[in-house]
Amino acid sequence: MNTHTPNMRPVIRQLDDAAINRIAAGEVVERPASAVKELVENAVDAGATRVTVEIADGGKTLIRVTDDGCGMGADELPLALSRHATSKIDGSDLLNIHSFGFRGEALPSLGAVGRLTIQSRIPGEEGAEISVSGGQMGAVKPAALNRGTVVTLRDLFFATPARLKFLRTDRAEMMGISDVMKRIAMAEPSVAFTLRDVSQGKDRVTFRADSVSGDLFDALRGRLSQVLGAEFTENALAIDAEREGFRLTGYAALPTYSRGSSVAQHLFVNGRPVQDKLLHGALRGAYADYLSRERHPAVALFVDCDPHKVDVNVHPAKSEVRFREPGIVRGLIVSALRHALAEAGHRASSTVASETLAALRPEMRAPLPDGQQMPLHQQPSQTDSFGAYGGGAPLGAPQQAISSPRVYQMDRPSAGARSAAYAAQAPDPNFVPAPPRVPQPQGFAEMQGSWSGRVVEDAPAEPEAAHLPLGAARGQVHENYIIAQTESGIVIVDQHAAHERLVYEKLKRQMAERGVAAQALLIPEIVELSQDDLSRILDIAEDLGRMGLSVEPFGGSALAVRETPAILGEVNAEALIKDILDELSDYGSSQLVQEKLEAILSRVACHGSIRSGRRMRAEEMNALLREMEATPHSGQCNHGRPTYVELRLSDIERLFGRT
Question: What is the pTM of this model?
């Protein structure tokens, strides 16, 4: 992009303040959500206990932020609109930062690209108002205001119309604003936040979080319930750990409460929402053994430390930070999360049961083709109640009201399965009753010889098993699912997935005790790298050595791979090293070798576990349940899927309309 004209020397010139502010606005204010972030953070820094944000047209035509903070005096308003004027630091120590903002760029930048009005009042003085439009500042005027500050921004980017073309739809911009509000709300439980959409003369509250009192964890749990929902806090583990001046607090969800993207990962450093690859890499490492690569954990974690140990002034939007000792922070996150997950034992997410029940909820069946009759067991009863569980209509209702009965989503067998099921349930014309003195088998035991459902007798050695968390085995269906009875309901266990996890945990313990066996290469493989890549690999050479991958410099920028983990078999060392470098670039750390080793153990565990289709005796099923209760992480398989589903008796009764 060389724009220099030959024979003409470019001349250095000083830009005017309006141009400087518009350039600064390009870094600070990317979209309406950026403007809301800056103004709400200013309100929190001013000590506000209640912040209200009003938005019109996705923030393009109106952003108004009202707070009850300390306010500003009439003589401070012109200064607030000057670049690098702030009350939050004195400039002597740029690392000793205890507030959201500190640069003094937000207000003048917003005034340079929009129409900005500030009304403010401090206790004991009259209110004042100042306006700036496209960088042109007006005079200070009196204003009627009770307390605090009201900042109104209209016609964002009117002074730079080219920026308007890059904005998204009103709906998308509103979602971005809502996300910003939620992140700040999570960091400040004691402050009440309200977001209103006042587009087209309407007034609709799109987000509200009332202030929450209590100790650290009670207040945080209450605020996270407001922002992320009660499901998150019900399925999250409290985290509280400290190491060498760094403290980690917050909540981390169970592996079975995972998401398809990292959208539910909320990270904060000294109360500031951040998107930092070091922290995301540590999260990935902590959950690597419980989730597949396409699943992501849900967390709300807060790292607190001395401000001198972290630099927050490394990104224009202050969304990234740089730690002085990143290794300590990463180790703290990984160890704290793994310890909490281990203590959770066999616990699985409660949403698993909710999803199971949701799959059983009734839905409308499409009308049957002419001439076809609905099976008798699916026809509506004329006495059924008309509601969530009733298939028919009230007596006297029009006929069309009962022509489309409600069915359950799980009631979708194939034609072949339906035929087999009807045949199995039909009376046998050749059936000869047994003599009365011979007891008749009951329930699933009738089909034990040729069908997959069967009941088992109580294991005599465990009369109190029903009082245990996973209960006592009562039956096995399809030679793959164990049905157990607990005090408050039933548990359905996937025997193959559960035993696979148990074997996998046992193999991991053995590898940790004995170490990773390495195989020496007859001829070391030489990998050519850049100097930077070579330095990054050598920095973690000791960690790689513990995983059985031995590397050393081979002159220049070459790397010699002398040993590889024996369990991996034949390895393409060059491809492995480059994959490790890619992870170091993306996350700041690499778990690739560890993941490959654990993937091998996972495959070994899969082949060495109880297979689907195997009939188990009562004592075997109960032994599996007891081992699951004693083994950490047994609530999910090696891929993060649940190994069991627990259904409460109250849920089952509601499913059948008994409550």
Answer: 0.69
